[in-house]
Specification:
Elements (H helix, E strand, L loop, with lengths): L2 H24 L7 H5 L6 E6 L5 H14 L4 E5 L10 H10 L4 E5 L13 H11 L4 E7 L16 E4 L5 H7 L10 H18 L2 H11 L12 H21 L3 H16 L7 H7 L5 H13 L3 E4 L14 E4 L2 H8 L5 H14 L4 E2 L6 E3 L3 E6 L14 E5 L9 E3 L8
Parallel strand pairs: 1-4, 1-5, 2-3, 3-4, 10-11, 11-12
Antiparallel strand pairs: 6-7, 8-9, 9-10
């Protein structure tokens, strides 16, 4: 190799190391997400997906810091650095490993500038995995990577994890309100009186729950509380204007229609779609295109579509109901339109569907894990709709503890 080129590459690598070390040293490890301990970090190729703002970067930097403190040679960088305008991932990984590198952390991998038509980021990750077996790779990307049609098949190589926003339990721990364990859905149903009573011995839960619904899902709230809504609005714009086009090749006009669709959904959530009417109002040519737009928004974790329970082995090809993904989004998009009933249902759906499948039933609000029927409501909510139905429960707001099959709504924030 030419000496000048070698010196140049050495300086470039030193710059990457400098940025990496600065970020690793700065990250706090006082609070770690529950997913941190659930990831099998021994795997050679780990994918961490999630919406913008939920904490993927922090999680990766925390692991990089732990490994560095254990004597491992690690390197962290974001794939959208100007360095990658000319340089590629494979050469960077190869040079890193040849100089003693052991674990490579790549953030925002879907933002990597593709160098050749048949050599996208996924192909380069595959090449690194196959050609450099001594190197471990951890990469993060938007949850919309599910839409991405890559040239490199990583499905047999990677172990994939999804990072949700903070649960109510994590929010309390993050804000130093106490240490609380998580519970499975079935254990929570069976022992909800004892669990809720014990939690309420340590904390006034209802005021904390109210705060969580407004500002608790995204960890970055604590960085600048006064600009939280603006920042969340900016994230929504970046997802639609930048992230989705990166992986789906949609036009600017399509991005604008997706924004209009999100506005239509958010104004009437839970939204019961009449696809022909919605398509006509937004000047969308057919229902398949509209369903495709809804798919973009759901994969980006801006909305959640709720499908119907299977009937005669068929599922409707359109969603039965559409919600915004989480309650913080509801307050950020239009707090004047927020209704208590929708807030309750959105919270329940967001927390539960992260751990179990949820469908839309004929009776009640949610059908969980093909077994449990749940009705969600305020403290005056009755049980008549679920009378004589096995495995049926009422998730009730504004109560600290429940009884029989009546469970405090806030308790479903302790599932992860």
């Amino acid at each position: 190799m030419d000496y000048k080129i070698s010196v140049f590459l050495k300086k470039i690598m030193e710059q990457l190391y400098e940025i990496s070390n600065r970020l690793i040293q700065k990250v706090s490890t006082s609070f770690k997400r529950g997913l941190y301990t659930e990831i099998n970090w021994n795997n050679r190729l780990i994918e961490i997906k999630g919406s913008r703002g939920v904490g993927k970067t922090t999680l990766m930097l925390q692991k990089a810091k732990e490994e560095q403190e254990n004597g491992k040679n690690v390197l962290y960088f974001s794939a959208d650095l100007p360095f990658f305008y000319k340089n590629n991932l494979f050469d960077t990984a190869d040079r890193f490993q040849k100089h003693g590198g052991e674990i490579l952390f790549i953030d925002e991998v879907h933002k990597y500038p593709q160098k050749q038509k048949q050599n996208d980021w996924a192909q380069e990750i595959k090449n690194i995995y196959d050609a450099i077996p001594d190197l471990k790779l951890v990469y993060s990307g938007s949850s919309i990577l599910q839409l991405y049609q890559s040239s490199g098949d990583l499905s047999r190589r990677k172990t994939s994890y999804l990072l949700n926003g903070l649960s109510l339990r994590e929010y309390l721990i993050y804000n130093r309100k106490g240490e609380f364990e998580k519970f499975s859905f079935s254990i929570l149903l069976e022992n909800h009186i004892e669990i809720a009573t014990e939690i309420c011995r340590h904390i006034k839960i209802l005021p904390q729950f109210e705060s969580y619904l407004i500002k608790g899902y995204y960890p970055f709230y604590n960085e600048s509380p006064q600009s939280f809504s603006q920042r969340l609005g900016d994230i929504i714009n970046v997802i639609i204007e930048s992230d989705i086009p990166y992986v789906s090749e949609i036009t600017q006009e399509t991005a604008y229609k997706i924004k209009q669709l999100l506005a239509a959904v958010s104004s009437t959530v839970p939204y019961t779609p009449k696809l022909s009417n919605t398509a006509s109002e937004l000047y969308i040519t057919d229902q398949r295109t509209l369903i495709g737009y809804l798919n973009y928004l759901e994969k980006a974790e801006l909305i959640t579509t709720l499908g119907a329970r299977a009937m005669r082995n068929k599922i409707l090809n359109k969603p039965a109901k559409i919600y915004l993904n989480n309650t913080n989004l509801m307050y950020a998009i239009d707090k004047q339109m927020v209704s208590p009933g929708t807030i309750r249902e959105t919270f329940f759906l967001n927390q539960v569907r992260y751990v179990l499948p949820v469908k839309y039933p004929k009776t009640g609000d949610f059908y969980v894990d093909n077994k449990y029927l749940v009705e969600v409501g305020g403290k005056n909510k009755g049980k008549n709709q679920l009378k004589d139905i096995a495995y049926s429960f009422v998730a009730k707001d504004d109560i600290e503890t429940g009884y029989a099959n009546v469970i405090p709504l806030w308790l479903f924030g302790f599932l992860y």
